[in-house]
Amino acid sequence: MLKLKGINKSFNVGTVNEKHVLKDLELHLAPGDFVTVIGGNGAGKSTMLNAVAGTWRVDSGTILLDGVDVTNTSEYRRAKYLGRVFQDPRIGTATNMQIDENLALAARRGKPRTLRWGISSKEQEAYREQLKALELGLEDRMTSKVGLLSGGQRQALTLLMATLQRPKLLLLDEHTAALDPKTAAKVLELTDRLIAENQLTALMVTHNMRDAIAHGNRLIMMHDGRIILDISGEEKKKLTVEALLERFSESSGSEFSNDRALLG
To answer: What is the pTM of this model?
Structure first.
């Protein structure tokens, strides 16, 4: 479903601040893979997601989505393949629009536009059922402005919107980092359920080692622009934070130095 082949990306080229962030990066995701991504500051995690989304054009290499070469495809054209949830709960929704209007926008993304805007009773009922499954009481607040929701409610809504059309790939960029622990756990539980129910392929960047181990069927660890660990199956199920740190030291030749990940 996703292939990254020989991806390189540098910033501030030709200046004293030049930084080679992704270095001949290779990654292959099979359909249905739910891959968590962990790594220290500057490892290249978010840059990799931005490269896949088309936010950053890569310097070299190839990006394939479901067999389609999208390396030189613009960000807005790639959007039809992707669902994305960001760290900031305010991104991904229209603050001044109602909950049902936000869902309608997500449901109609990529479809031919007409002069008709109104939401039909059939659509309203579908949105009500989808919101009810979130177990946050939003099905009774469908005409409320999204800007009135809490961070957790808004992130849950964003997650639902990102998965409405069953994207070929779901990108989650530290999407629980701005939430309190209890709310983050709820959003992660919802993440697991939506990915499983819709049989999605997903790539989730997280700063929390325990979350990276507990969720998904595969874990990759990045360091200095490359993937140095790729753990799946029974090996991942038995993994502990201590064992992961030891594996990191063995593979990188250095100590892991991300306080957020260690304290998460």
So the answer is: 0.90
